[in-house]
Specification:
The protein is built from 27 helices and 22 strands. The protein is α/β, with parallel strands linked by helices and 725 residues long. The strands form four sheets. The chain has a seven-stranded mixed beta sheet with strand order 6-7-4-3-2-5-8. The structure holds adenosine-5'-diphosphate and magnesium ion (MG).
Length: 725
């Protein structure tokens, strides 16, 4: 029989009609389908510990899961009182360990035979008899030759999910592995490439056939990574091709503003700054500049971790827009942040002929009226404000450029309301590192992304520590000491005033007490959301001017606030805050060349109950995640300053469902890609696909017809794209 990928799996050795039916039930009909039934995990030597090492971990308080490989030495059912348990005694290179089951004994007791090898995983404990024990572990059977090979040559073993349909045909781990192995050996070479040569070459990807082989039985761990990457890249490439085709059709319809960039004054301005722009800022600026110069409307997302210097990039782009005679709207999520941008920008504008106005909710009617008139008559060039900007009566006749800061605080609807104030302004959206909604928007293909992946030079990494309420005395003396050296502190509380419902500290009463006691020798100030705008503005102004040392605050200062002299951030009841919130708050310090500190205060009882000492998500099971969420958040903060990593952890803690909302309409289901981890690949894929499609929109050149075929045969359906227009 000639070999063919469409061969029914019924004809594969050890399958036959009965098992073929079971395979059909899980969507596998042909040999080809089986080639893409990838392992759910792999066992490699680096992920296996032996009995001695595991016992050490347990003694040191490790609370996660482990995997051991051992041979069954003995099995027994032990009765105690009315109950019974099933115990399997196992042995590995380090010694003996036992696996126990309290339930399902009937089922498990026949599975384990003396002499068989198993890989078992669960959370280890040491029993009161001193035995290393795994209760109700996950287990995978290994054949003799496999376990020998594994131990001797370090060969990586794939594990496949054996569905209940397959199990019912007496197909187990080992036999499924063997069937798939044979199919891969016999048929993988028939698989055709699905990516254009140019893409494979430029990204140095594994070809499809090699990737399939290595996904199943990798020659080495890095080959497995390469294989995965290849499939991720393919998936993302096709998603972005679909977006690009869609976008390409749209773009032909609307035309935007073509700004002229006057290079000389711009260069002068950049040189007059008190610092030198980072490489990353310059790169991003050149991307924005290209967009502004083109007659297609810009729709760009500027992403960068807190403190990476997004604002100055926005300011420079704003200058380009106003020097072309257009008006600019700059929207920020809070009054305080809008005001900060306003003041900041106003200083830069002093040397120019341009002006700016602030438009926020709390302003006096008379002032507001004057400003609105100025905007309407095109006398005001730059309007900075909160969502007050999007109100109906704000008429911005020459609006040519829109900047939205900390976009995750705004809904998509608010954004489009501002943008629709004129025909098609260029739009720059800014956000700290990766906010899932921006990801989903990326997926819809309506934003280009620029990333600032570098912090300004001379920044020291912020030191983050966990302290209990009992240690607050020390924290206050530290604050006082630093105040005497001219450094400033934020102290954040979760509540404004005491609450009957919530047993949490509030800023008002703590401020009253602490300013008269612990901090009576230094200068303090208070800000919170219940104060009126005049009061808030005054407090922020004098804190920025260094007129006092410590600002007691609620989370009104959470986003965007830039007080370079502040070096200490104290967060009370830190266990109550979400991870991205904590990271944003911490980002208020670390904005100069001094050492900054973030002190997370939590209750003594929380601190002493802390079990998760080191955050290793690989090892945490889902129940652990649930149980230790607040601990994981706090420890993650201590362990890393990297907003990217924290977002990943946050994603894992909250689950994609919660972050994306109710399966936001049409977010594609990926087989290989993880939206948080693979953001770089996503950005690259977008670049590649958009370039390819704009060079060859009809997909006629070279081997590009592959793309057409793949889209038609596979991806339109896989990504739920009903059409491309
Ligand atoms: P974010 O990206 O969080 O919005 P900001 O734009 O507020 O960060 O910038 C943080 C601080 O770093 C500001 O005080 C800003 O003036 C300063 N800054 C920006 N770019 C640089 C740079 N290239 N070198 C030194 N400091 C910079
Ligand atoms: Mg900012």
């Amino acid at each position: 029989m000639s070999k063919d990928l469409k061969t029914s799996i019924q004809y594969i050795k050890s399958v036959g009609p009965k098992r073929a039916e079971a395979f059909n039930q899980i969507g596998i009909h042909t040999v080809e389908d089986l080639l893409y039934y990838f392992p759910s995990k792999h066992l490699d030597r680096s992920s296996i510990l032996n009995t001695v090492k595991v016992a050490q971990l347990v003694i040191n308080g490790y609370d996660g899961e482990v995997t051991l490989i051992g041979k069954v030495e003995d099995t027994e059912i032990i009765r105690y009182g009315k109950k019974q348990l099933f115990k399997v005694q196992m042995k590995d290179s380090g010694g003996f360990f036992e696996c126990v089951w309290f339930q399902g004994i009937k089922f498990f007791k026949d599975l384990f035979k003396v002499g068989q090898a198993y890989a078992v995983s669960s959370k280890p404990v040491i029993t009161r008899y001193g035995n290393l024990q795994l209760a109700h572990p996950d287990f995978d059977k290994l054949s003799d030759s496999e376990s020998l090979e594994f131990l001797n040559t370090g060969k990586i073993i794939p594990f496949y999910r054996v569905s209940k349909e397959l199990k019912s045909t007496k197909l187990g781990d080992i036999s499924l592995r063997r069937i798939i192995h044979n199919v891969v050996e016999d048929y993988a070479h028939l698989v055709k490439e699905t990516l254009p040569k140019q893409v494979i070459a430029s990204k140095n990807l594994m070809d499809r056939c090699t990737a399939i082989k290595n996904f199943h039985t990798p020659e080495a761990l890095n080959k497995l990574d390469e294989a995965r990457k290849r499939f991720k890249c393919e998936e993302l490439f096709y998603l972005q091709c679909l977006n690009a085709l869609r976008r390409f059709k749209q773009k032909k319809k609307i035309s935007g503003i073509k700004f002229n960039v006057h290079a000389k004054p711009l260069k002068q301005f950049i040189e007059s700054l008190p610092f030198r722009l980072t490489e990353a800022q310059l790169k991003v600026l050149s991307e924005i500049r290209k967009d502004m110069e083109s007659d297609e409307p810009m729709n760009r997302l500027l992403q960068g971790d807190v403190g990476s210097g997004k604002t100055i990039v926005a300011l420079i782009s704003i200058l380009i827009a106003v020097s072309n005679g257009y008006q600019v709207a700059f929207m920020a999520p809070t009054e305080i942040l809008a005001d900060q941008h306003f003041k900041n920008l106003s200083t830069y504008l002093e040397k120019t002929n341009f002006n700016a106005a602030l438009l926020i909710g709390g302003q006096k009617q008379s002032i507001r009226k004057t400003i609105l008139n100025g905007i309407k008559n095109n006398e005001i060039n730059i309007i900075i404000g909160t969502h007050a900007l999007i109100e109906e009566n704000v008429n911005i006749p020459r609006l040519g450029f829109v900047v939205i800061d900390e976009q995750h605080r705004f809904g998509v609807a608010q954004r489009s309301k501002l943008i629709s104030k004129t025909k098609s302004p260029d739009v720059l959206i800014m956000t700290a590192t990766p906010i899932p909604r921006t990801l989903s928007m990326t997926l819809y293909g309506d934003l280009d992304i620029s990333i600032i992946d570098q912090m300004p030079a001379n920044r020291k990494s912020i030191k983050t520590v966990l302290r209990s309420d009992n240690q607050l005395d020390k924290v206050f003396s530290f604050i006082e000491e630093k105040a005497n050296e001219g450094e400033q502190t934020f102290i954040v509380y979760p509540l404004v005033e005491e609450s009957e419902k919530l047993d949490l500290k509030d800023v008002v009463s703590h401020f009253e007490i602490i300013k008269e006691s612990h901090l009576k020798n230094i200068r303090t100030g208070l800000i919170h959301g219940k104060m009126n705008w005049r009061e808030k503005e005054k407090v922020m102004e004098s804190f920025a001017a260094g007129k006092f040392d410590v600002l007691f605050s609620t989370t009104v200062i959470e986003v965007g606030i830039d007080i370079p002299r502040a070096t200490i951030m104290v967060i009370n009841e830190a266990f109550r805050f979400g991870l991205s919130q904590l990271h944003q708050l911490r980002g208020r310090v670390g904005r100069n060349d001094k050492q900054s500190y973030c002190i997370l205060i939590t209750r003594e009882e929380h601190l002493s109950r802390m079990k998760v000492k080191k955050v290793d998500l690989e090892f945490l099971s889902n129940t652990d995640l649930e149980k230790y969420k607040s601990q994981i958040r706090l420890n993650s903060m201590v362990e890393t300053n990297d907003g990217f990593k924290l977002a990943e952890i946050d994603f894992k803690l909250r689950g994609p469902g919660n972050i994306f909302g109710t399966q936001q309409s049409g977010l594609p289901q990926f087989k290989f890609t993880n939206l948080i981890e693979d953001q770089d690949l996503l950005v690259e894929a977008k670049h590649d696909a958009f370039k390819l499609i704009s060079d060859d929109p009809l997909l006629n050149k070279g081997d590009h017809k592959i793309i057409k075929e793949q889209i038609k045969n596979t991806y339109l359906e896989a990504f739920n794209f009903s059409h491309i227009a």
